[in-house]
Amino acid sequence: MSSTKILYTATATVIGGREGHAKSSDGVLDLQLVVPKELGGPGGAGSNPEQLFAAGYAACFEGAMRFVARQKSIALKDASVTAHVGIGPREPTGFGIAVKLDVSLPGLDRAVAQELVDVAHRDICPYSHATRGNVDVTITLV
After folding, report:
1. Residue 81 has what pLDDT?
2. Which family does the record claim for this protein (predicted)?
3. 81 near 66, Cβ under 8 Å?
4. Of 130, 126, 138, which Cα lies nearest the Cα of 67?
5. Is 101 helix (H, G, I), strand (E, B) or coil?
6. Model's pTM, two decimal places?
7. Are residues 102 and 36 in the same domain?
8. Which residues, in sequence order, are CB contacts of 18 under 8 Å at separation 6+?
């Protein structure tokens, strides 16, 4: 059993799977899902689970770094995180994902920036906790 005290629960419903429609319970998220051409789909206007995961992880990771920076009284001005989420077949069956996070912390000493990244990934970010041991995650300071 998890020791997490839940403070907020996001709820979304998808009808039609990867070629369907996604909508959050509050209606803020309301979008068409489309299979990318690279996965044999038509591509075009619409999102996909990998894009949504990338956006969520990038937002969460930057938030985690900002949390650590506040704890250490470090000012972050132009921080950004770009998440790349790849999907492909895995052995022996099914599919897996891999994540690459490109972190930009301009104006910070590289050692300080690396410490923020390390602490955020190891101790704070829930996406990092959820993927640890399940998904290959590479983080690069750019």
Report:
1. 98
2. Belongs to the OsmC/Ohr family.
3. no
4. 126
5. strand
6. 0.94
7. no
8. 33, 34, 35, 41, 48, 49
Using a pLDDT cut of 70, give the percent of the chain over it. 99
Residues 124 and 61 in one domain: yes
- Same-domain status, 15 and 56: no
The domain containing residue 115 runs over which residues? 49-141
Say whether both 54 and 66 belong to one domain.
yes
Q: What is the pLDDT of residue 104?
A: 98
Same domain, 37 and 103: no
Supply the mean pLDDT for the chain.
96
* CA 103 vs CA 11, 69, 99: distances in Å: 28, 14, 13
Q: Tokens 């983080």 — which residue?
A: 139
Q: Residue 60: pLDDT above 80?
A: yes
- Sort strands 30-32 and 21-24 into parallel, antiparallel or unpaired: antiparallel
